[in-house]
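FORM 12-B: Structure-to-Sequence Request
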């Protein structure tokens, strides 16, 4: 890093277009676009020596509302920063940072902190607007090695990419790709103009783009998808191991989900993407084999994460967590098409994906995903579109007119598709069961029907905040019994997504959530900071106790469903990966044994999706999808955290080699390989 005075001179040049009004800056406005629809804004205004930032997004009935006041020092870095408002799920934000000389102090949801620093450091706003990404990138632009220590911890890094021209002839400007690392598992992609001003923050599904340039959104999302794909193609080249020879995984026990038992010592041999055999431990090797020493560990069939919204950022992290198959529950259809093609071609790592067709009604609260419909006829056309493209089911969502549900479900069934979804607003689970749902998604969607009035609108955050009314609910009451009896009688499956509700109902500001306590120390600093931010606003007297009571009621409900034979499906809606392990641990809390949980996440799900001829167990002729843990997961699901190797479609991954690329400290060592 260059000397502090040189650094300061460089960053003052880079920041000249974005300093407060006294320094010659202009106000800035950005539009937030999701799925091609404008859903919010970022407005930056100069006020004396300060910048005031207003950030507001509303998509799917929720989103952050943030106000910031920011002052920059002579080096162009923040010296004072206040951030207030509410997060996406409604928890309050009251964040502040101040630096005086070498002393810095801050308050965020993780608590209070202070330190003494030497030289340039950049404070990372925990709840800051996307505009802050431009600030960080400009700071790194002026640094020789493009690295800066961050506060409260970690380090930010910047790489520069291609330049491109954006805008119509009269507004055309040149912008350059900047890749900002150190904030999350994957980099952030943004565009800066020639003066260093922020032009856009981009992802494959959304953009934050300078006002007047919204027409660039499709092009920018395609650019983001390509940049992300190129990163993951590079990771695939570095970490994926493909062998032309047969591979023998020796000295392992094999979990058999059909019997819920482990075998004695065996060797599992695979060639290409198929299992050649499960052989006795003393079976001789053949010339030319590659051998992987399992050291007495256990092989488990690949897991099925059944509630994914798949993005490139999470595909490799799912694979190294043993998730080799997933069910996507709604996505940008074109983006997912391209991602699946890249996975199937072996260019990037990712689970096998079974697709659900997302159908949402148009409303001021709709999610911008899948296909939006405004009439019953359009809903039926959407079902037919998905059926013609091989989707295995349709998923109906919050803003769908509930009167259209029966017709949409009937059309899905007529065309061979299953039907699942949320309970549309102003309806209840009983009505959706009567409409023919094969499966109900999220346990809150069922339970809200027991505590909401007919006019209350679940297209808003009410579908989360009203959960506190569940505390102390009598599960023997007629209203509850009617729904549970109907689920049992109609054999409706339920995907409860327990772990996401654990976060919603129990996470407290500044505390390490119980669901991540066992992985917390392995994760990067900004992740550790982020998980200590509550999801829900529990500031009103009695709210914390009410939400905790709702958690007890929720678990009791899912536990009864299991006891009554309801088919429960494991999925997270949290991105899968390590979060999926937590979901499985919560299945144990509701009464499944570890072995039963593993069967549910493997063979049962393969059968549910009609894939059990090829997947779900480790047997000759099946696809080579499995993973290695050192101990016995039928006794302790915590073994899932210590995966040493994953084989997906015959390609081998060692998590110990993959995790450092995401800033994660590995949980286990890689096994020894010989003959390669």
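FORM 12-B RESPONSE
SEQUENCE OUT:
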């Amino acid at each position: 890093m260059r000397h502090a005075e040189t650094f300061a001179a460089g960053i003052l040049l880079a920041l000249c277009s974005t300093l407060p009004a006294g320094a010659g800056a202009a106000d800035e406005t950005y539009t937030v676009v999701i799925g091609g629809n404008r859903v919010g804004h970022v407005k930056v205004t100069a006020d004396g020596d300060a910048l005031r930032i207003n950030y507001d997004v509303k998509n799917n009935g929720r989103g952050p509302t943030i106000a910031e006041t920011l002052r920059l020092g002579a080096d162009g870095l923040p010296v004072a920063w206040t951030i207030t408002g509410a997060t996406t799920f409604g928890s309050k934000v009251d964040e502040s940072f101040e630096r005086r000389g070498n002393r810095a102090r801050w308050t965020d949801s993780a608590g209070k902190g202070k330190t003494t620093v030497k030289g340039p450091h950049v404070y990372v706003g925990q709840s800051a607007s996307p505009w802050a990404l431009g600030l960080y990138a400009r700071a790194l632009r002026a640094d020789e090695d493009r690295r800066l220590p961050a506060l409260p911890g970690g380090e930010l890094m910047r790489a520069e990419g291609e330049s491109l021209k954006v805008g119509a002839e009269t507004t055309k400007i040149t912008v350059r790709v900047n890749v900002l690392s150190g904030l999350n598992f994957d980099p952030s992609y943004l565009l800066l103009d020639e003066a260093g001003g922020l032009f856009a923050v981009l992802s494959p599904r959304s953009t934050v783009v300078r006002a007047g340039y919204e027409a660039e959104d499709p092009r920018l999302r395609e650019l983001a998808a390509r940049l992300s794909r190129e990163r993951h193609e590079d990771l695939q080249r570095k970490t994926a191991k493909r062998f032309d020879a047969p591979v023998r995984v020796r000295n392992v026990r094999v979990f058999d989900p059909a019997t819920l038992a482990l075998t004695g010592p065996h060797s599992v041999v695979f060639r290409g993407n198929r299992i050649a055999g499960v052989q006795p431990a003393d079976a001789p090797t053949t010339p030319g084999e590659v051998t992987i020493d399992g050291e007495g560990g256990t092989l488990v069939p690949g897991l099925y994460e059944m509630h994914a919204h798949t993005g490139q950022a999470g595909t490799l992290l799912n694979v190294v967590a043993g998730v080799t198959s997933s069910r996507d529950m709604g996505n940008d259809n074109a983006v997912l098409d391209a991602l699946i093609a890249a996975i199937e071609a072996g260019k990037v790592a990712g689970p096998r994906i079974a697709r659900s067709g997302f159908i949402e009604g148009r409303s001021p609260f709709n999610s911008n995903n899948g296909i939006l419909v405004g009439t019953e006829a359009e809903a039926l056309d959407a079902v037919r579109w998905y059926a013609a493209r091989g989707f295995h089911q349709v998923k109906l969502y919050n803003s769908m007119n509930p009167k259209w549900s029966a017709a949409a479900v009937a059309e899905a069934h007529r065309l061979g598709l299953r039907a699942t979804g949320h309970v549309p607003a102003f309806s209840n689970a009983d009505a959706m069961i009567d409409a023919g749902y094969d499966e109900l998604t999220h346990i809150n969607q069922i339970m809200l029907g027991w505590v909401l009035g007919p006019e209350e609108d679940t297209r808003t955050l009410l579908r989360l905040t009203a959960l506190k009314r569940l505390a102390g609910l009598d599960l023997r009451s007629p209203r509850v019994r009617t729904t549970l009896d109907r689920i049992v009688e109609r054999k409706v499956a339920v995907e409860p997504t327990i772990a996401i509700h654990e976060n919603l109902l129990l996470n407290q500001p500044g505390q390490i959530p119980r669901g991540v306590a066992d992985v917390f120390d392995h994760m990067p600093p900004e992740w550790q900071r982020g998980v200590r931010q509550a999801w829900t606003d529990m500031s009103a007297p009695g709210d914390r106790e009410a939400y905790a009571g709702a958690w007890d009621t929720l678990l009791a409900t899912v536990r009864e469903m299991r006891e009554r034979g309801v088919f429960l499906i494991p999925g997270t809606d949290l991105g899968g990966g390590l979060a999926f392990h937590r979901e499985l641990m919560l299945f144990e809390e509701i009464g499944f044994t570890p072995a039963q949980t593993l069967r549910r996440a493997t063979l049962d799900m393969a059968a549910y999706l009609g894939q059990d001829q090829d997947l779900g167990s480790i047997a000759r002729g099946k696809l080579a999808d499995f993973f290695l843990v050192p101990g016995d997961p039928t006794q302790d699901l915590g073994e899932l955290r210590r995966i040493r190797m994953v084989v997906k479609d015959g390609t081998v991954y060692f998590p110990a080699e993959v995790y450092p690329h995401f800033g994660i400290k590995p949980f286990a060592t890689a096994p020894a390989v010989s003959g390669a």
